[in-house]
Design goal:
Blueprint (H helix, E strand, L loop, with lengths): L2 H6 L3 H12 L9 H13 L1 H10 L2 H11 L8 H8 L4 E3 L4 E3 L2 H10 L3 H6 L13
Antiparallel strand pairs: 1-2
Helix pairs in contact: 2-3, 5-7
Length: 133
């Protein structure tokens, strides 16, 4: 599933809420369901929005996004709810599961640090390996 398909499964009210979350309009424009989907898609087609999202994530949130992008099981929590409010994660509350669209996963994986980078990361310290005070 890609983001476009996921958006088309949402209700008009959900799409309007997504639009409000992403664009913060003073007054909600009268857009059709197809136009709302197009606007949300074009928001996430902009690489700058991805960079803003990644920059805004805390280290814990980055780890959660890496786990999501790698398709590991994650608990539905406040962070997943927040990502759902941005249209990146699709929650199926009645089945207590979620889905990350494939194109969203790809865009995250190309921006988040790789597992190799995380494993090879060294703490900053002296030559003896002791971290500075």
């Amino acid at each position: 599933m890609i983001l476009r398909d996921a958006l088309r499964q949402m209700s008009l009210d959900q799409l309007r809420e997504l639009y409000r979350t992403l664009y913060h309009p003073e007054q909600m424009p009268l857009l059709t369901e197809a136009e709302l989907c197009q606007q949300i898609e074009s928001f996430w087609d902009n690489p700058a929005h991805w960079e803003e999202l990644i920059a805004a994530l805390s280290p814990t949130e980055r780890r959660a996004m890496i786990r999501l992008a790698l398709q590991e099981r994650c608990q539905i929590d406040a962070f997943l709810e927040e990502m759902s409010a941005l249209g990146l994660v699709i929650l199926y509350r009645d089945h207590n599961r979620y889905q990350l669209p494939d194109d969203v996963r790809y865009k995250l994986l190309e921006r988040l640090p790789s597992i190799g980078d995380l494993l090879s990361a060294k703490r900053q310290g002296d030559e003896d390996g002791i971290a500075p005070v």
